[in-house]
Amino acid sequence: MRHLARSSRTHLGRHGISAELMEVSSGGKHVPDVLLTYIADLQVDLLIMGAYGHPRLFEFMFGGTTQSLLDRITIPVLMSH
């Protein structure tokens, strides 16, 4: 996974787009909250992320991280599944 992220960053760089690869630990906190804090603190203007789906019942019972983030994010998101 990290290789793909590094390759993507290199590809973007060839096209004049500055990108930074970050791996963030949630420290037990709600993942969307942690990501939104980083996005605000670093003044990120585009988020590129992978999305992982759980069965519908699991997401209904516990909520989906991806959907929770998308419901609250205010910047463009490029997502791959």
Automatic annotation (TrEMBL):
Q: Which InterPro entries match?
A: Rossmann-like_a/b/a_fold, UspA
Superkingdom of origin = Bacteria
Q: Highest lineage ranks of the organism?
A: Bacteria, Pseudomonadati, Pseudomonadota, Alphaproteobacteria, Hyphomicrobiales
The name under which this protein is listed is UspA
Source species of the chain: Beijerinckia indica subsp. indica (strain ATCC 9039 / DSM 1715 / NCIMB 8712)
Q: Record's Pfam families?
A: Usp
Q: Which residues form the UspA domain?
A: 26-79
